[in-house]
Amino acid sequence: MARLKVTQIKSKVGAKHNQRESLRSLGLKRINDVVVKEDRPEIRGMIFAVNHLVKVEEVD
User: Closest Cα to residue 12, out of 1, 26, 58?
Assistant: First the structure.
């Protein structure tokens, strides 16, 4: 199964509550934090909610 490398590139300060919660659920706490997650619809939805705050790359 494909995996996604998610990097937080912008601060969550000033973001909406649901966007802050999506970052927390992804495991991102500060700028330049990196997590690797399975490519699932739930994860894609969280990434879509914060796509302006993160950078996403596909990893094998």
Answer: 26
| pLDDT, tens only, 14-26 | 999 999 999 999 9
Answering whether pTM is above 0.85, one says yes
Our separate counts of H helices and E strands in the chain read 2, 3
Residue 7 structure tokens: 């990097």
What contacts 2, CB < 8 A, 6 or more positions away? Answer: 38, 39, 58, 59, 60
Write out pLDDT tens, residues 38-60: 999 999 999 999 999 999 999 98
Dist CA 6 CA 25 (whole Å): 12
